[in-house]
Write a structure and sequence with these properties.
The chain is of the alpha/beta class and 287 residues long. The protein is 41% helix and 17% strand. The protein is built from twelve helices and eleven strands. The strands form two sheets. Strands 1-2-6-5-4-3-7-8-9 form a nine-stranded mixed sheet, sandwiched between helices. β5 (96-99), α5 (113-121) and β6 (125-128) form a beta-alpha-beta unit.
């Protein structure tokens, strides 16, 4: 992995990071030339590490749809929402940038080393302010967040508890004058309290990727049906329901009107053909 170092005085140092509060003194970067990524519209997607099936569904759906529109997805490579956002962007054939709390030679968390390699192999980038040999402290994870939103045009929080680190990222974004958006969550879920509180104070609601595109000032094409097609009528019916935002298995069964036997058969075939994926807790999402 070739690592490039940029100092604050370097002509290639990202201009948008020069003037944020506490700008980094140096950056270490690997992957596609940074200026190429930063020439595109960029959305930072962050959220809970302990992601629910709902959070997983909306994160992967929005990241995938935005990546398909040419938006660079930025996140922190953490377990949970961060990793899901990177993965969905890659699955869509898009570009993603990971901001690390550790040196590039020692990926943190170590469990996401494969994901970091996949990002580089698919034309994305890795960036950090920490050089080789530096220790990774707990504070690094918070400091990293100011760069996540500093490199983005818009910050999108898909799921966050009341004390989530994502709220630090939202505070950094507001200090930097960046637009903040949040996905409304279940009011009975503790993992949605932080995002819902942001919606009451400083964030705009994001209920579809079109909302995010509008915040970026980009007109998004309207799609009335999923690109993936079912092999028969029951499969297509389930795909259409999933595309409309229904993820709960019981709701899918009820809304489809299929018999339990046909429903289970169709779900199994859709999963085997790679068109849908299990999100856990009897929830399903488009692949």
């Amino acid at each position: 992995m070739k690592i490039n170092k940029l100092t604050l005085n370097s002509p290639l140092f990202p201009e948008l990071l020069r003037h944020i509060p506490q700008p980094p003194e140096q950056l270490y970067y690997s992957g596609i030339p940074l200026e190429e990524l930063l020439a595109r519209p960029r959305v930072a997607i962050v959220g809970s590490r302990s992601v629910t099936p709902y959070g997983k569904q909306v994160t992967m759906m929005l990241a995938r749809q935005l990546a398909e529109q040419g938006i660079v997805i930025i996140s922190g490579l953490a377990i949970g929402v961060d990793a899901l956002a990177h993965q969905a962007a890659l699955d869509a054939g898009g570009l993603t940038l990971a901001v690390l709390p550790s040196p590039l030679e020692r990926i943190a968390p170590a469990t996401n080393q494969y994901l970091a390699r996949r990002i580089l192999d698919n034309g994305g980038g890795l960036i950090t302010e920490y050089g080789a040999g530096e220790e990774t402290y707990k504070l690094n994870f918070i400091e990293r967040n100011r760069l996540v939103c500093g490199l983005a045009d818009v910050l999108l929080i898909t799921e966050a508890a009341v004390n989530s680190g994502s709220l630090h990222t939202a505070r950094f974004a507001l200090e930097q004058g960046k637009d903040v958006m949040a996905v409304p969550g279940n009011i009975t879920s503790t993992v949605s309290v932080g995002a819902n509180n942001l919606l009451k104070t400083s964030a705009a609601p994001a209920t579809s990727y079109v909302d995010v595109m509008h915040m970026l000032g980009i007109s998004a094409p309207h799609s009335s049906s999923p690109a993936v097609k079912g092999a028969n009528e029951p499969e297509q019916l389930l795909l259409d329901l999933l595309f409309s935002g229904i993820a709960d298995g019981n709701q899918l069964l009820e809304r489809s009107g299929l018999t339990a036997s046909m429903f289970n058969q169709s779900v199994t075939m859709l999963e085997l053909s790679g068109k849908i994926r299990a999100l856990g807790a009897n929830h399903w999402g488009l692949h």
